[in-house]
Amino acid sequence: MIVKNTIKKTLVITLAFILLSTTLISIQAIKPTTLIPMQQEPLVQPLQLQLAIPSSMGEGREFVVGVYTSQGPIADVIVFWLNGTYITDSTGRVTLTAPMVDHDTSFEIRAIKQGYQDAVGQILIINQLPQLILIVPSEVHENDNFVTYVHDEYGNPIEGVRVGFRSGDYYFGGGFTGPDGTAVLTAPEVNHTTIYEIGALKSGYRSGFAQITVFDTDSGFGWIYGIVCDANTSIPINNVTVCARRNGENMSHCVFTNDLGQYAIQVLTGEYTVSAQKEGYVASVVLGVFVPANTAVEVNFLLSRLQPPIPTIVYVDDDFNQNTSGWGYDHFNTIQAGINAVAVGGSVFVYSGTYVETIIINKQMILDGQWKETVFLNGNYVDNVITVTASNVLIDDMTIQNSGSYKAGILVDHATTVSIYGTKIHDCTFGIALEFASNCIIELNTIYNCSQMGILLEYSTNNMIARNSVSNSGFTGIHLVHSTTNNTVFHNNFINNDQSAFSSGYNLWDNGYPSGGNYWSDYTGIDANGDGIGDTPYIIPGSGNNQDNYPLMIPYI
Fold this sequence. Notes:
557 residues; 53 strands; eight-stranded parallel β-sheet; 44% strand
């Protein structure tokens, strides 16, 4: 029995241990639970209400206010206006009425709706009552009686207007205008010069305001005097406005100089800025002029004349003189004087006449003759008749003659984009000479009787020479030397020159077929097919191995 019980107990304990072990194994097999945080809904920013409001509106008038967002108009918005509330319609609009105001006043408009950000705006309500215009002296002395005048916008005097000195909303020292619109006020006593505002008030009108300076008479008086003269001639100048302004004040005392250039200004004691000005002169200012009581301080001025703007068009005629309108400014009787006076990029127009001079063009400009058959520029055998040292120059329609020995009718020296059109050049050593020049045009010129060369190019490239007539040159009609390359020469007539051409570098001598090249009076080729172009090239003498591939059989017209 004992054995059975023992076995029984042992069996129970064993079963209990197995159950406990199984439970522990089950517990260990369970994985720990991972906590997943709850996702929050993103916050939605409420839309911003916006107002469409007129910037200003006349009193008593209706106006429309619109309320909208980036998504369009918003209905049922509460709009606060003055002491009332209004609701927008389905189009986001509401009609409001401007109040009556005594003066131009800004008012606030506010719009609110649940779920939206509020909107606030401003509108200026304009007082549309007739305006009072107040006229007062610019300055008076303390205790002075002075007259004010009030009228409407049409100049009609207004009776019964209250006029007085203004301090904030308080008025003092006032009176009422009579039938003539005037009222007499008395300036208050002051310890120092003081600027006051004077107001004019009447029911049914917009108020008018003006400023007046009241001087302290206890400080004493002095004088500022002097003479105003021309800085160049020292001659007195009349009718000059001379003004004295005491430092720290806005008002000035002004007088005019007399026929002797003299002036005198009575002022209160103090430190002044004194100025003198007259149309046509540079204004002059003197600072820190101290005027003691009962003292006269001398302040003299020398005014310089204003320089007129540089003319863009200048006219030259050998008949102009000192009696010509614009003489010395934009009218001259020599071409060089006109060139000196004209603005860069301007024009000098030369009327018919004979001008014995040599000229230098040193700025971008146009030199335009009236007609080459009536405008004669005579160098008188002295120098280059025209020397061009600036780029972007045009010379047109004049006769140029009689250069100095070994000088040119026109010399272009170290310049680009110079155009020479329609001139007549004769009796010069060189007709037209280009030295260190590029991108120039020589066209439609007639050059004859030059002792050396009609056209000379040295150290010059990329120029065009076309439709010119060169004849009776003592050496060559056209001479291209010293690194002169890539120039184009076509449709020119070279007639009866001692030698028609010479070129030491490569240049182009025709414009292709059928346009053709140049006419050479010494060309000996034939035109078998009658197309006006020689059947064999014209060989250009010189080391450049050049030729005119399509020489013309008759002069180019």
